[in-house]
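Throughout our pipeline, every protein is held as a single compact record rather than as scattered files. Nothing more is needed to write down the fold, since each code stands for a local backbone conformation. For reference, a complete record is included directly beneath this paragraph.
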Amino acid sequence: MSDASRRLLPPMAALHSFAAAARLGSFSRAGDELGLTQSAVSRQIAHLEDWLQLRLFDRTGRRVVLTAEGSAYAEAIAPALDRIRRATARAIERRPDRELSIATLPSFGMRWLAPRLPRLTAQIPDLTINFSARATEFHFADEAFDAAIHFGRPDWPDAAHDLLFGEQAVAVMSPDFIARHAIVTPADLARVPLLALSSRRRAWPAWFGAGSIAAPAPEPTAAFEHFLMLAQAAAAGAGAALIPSFLIEPELASGVLVSPFELTAPDLGAYYLVYPPDRLDSPAFGQFRDWLIAEVS
């Protein structure tokens, strides 16, 4: 590291003292959190101010208040310090070379991945996979995941994308709901309660458009975060729902849910395996990726 680069990295002790004091608004409370005396925190911050040639706090008696420069600096370094802590935790908690952590959409994990895991175990018996349910995107630099299952477009930041498959959503409802509302044609759904997934509110208008239904799609009466919650509500007769058929095969097979129309919603996205490009250097991840793509094929 050059002298110029080193000059831009203040001592970590000073940064921690400053970040704690900025967050807590007190040198003494920062000292309590860090296990230091108030005077030690004050010295560390004075050292940082000297390093930066900036006044970070205004001191009035025993009170300290961030200056405008101090507030901007605190806001900028806090995420970096958090990422250093998480990276250190991951380094300390090193996993075996044959262990992976995969984030998956909850319904996809339960209905598509879980039933296939016996084949994975049979094919690669020494590989351990830890699956966690995650419904929203995250930065791989901030999380200890090797990969994630993503739905939408190939737009996950700083990640490679392997296309798995698209999604065909069908209109489903309970047999009692169909009888109660005398549903015969797709147009009949314009006059009944509709249920939606929170992240797919455009699905019903797209389905109505695909069927050239003249009436506009009604606003959903309820929205759910996960498909399986949506399926439960539809099975209970709360309304008609648009759900990918591969996620509700047991309900369709048992007759708890019925799909009376062949009409499907236009593809609103696809499922992808996403991962930091350097994960391809891991033999364990390469085996899991190859197995997953083969399952899709």
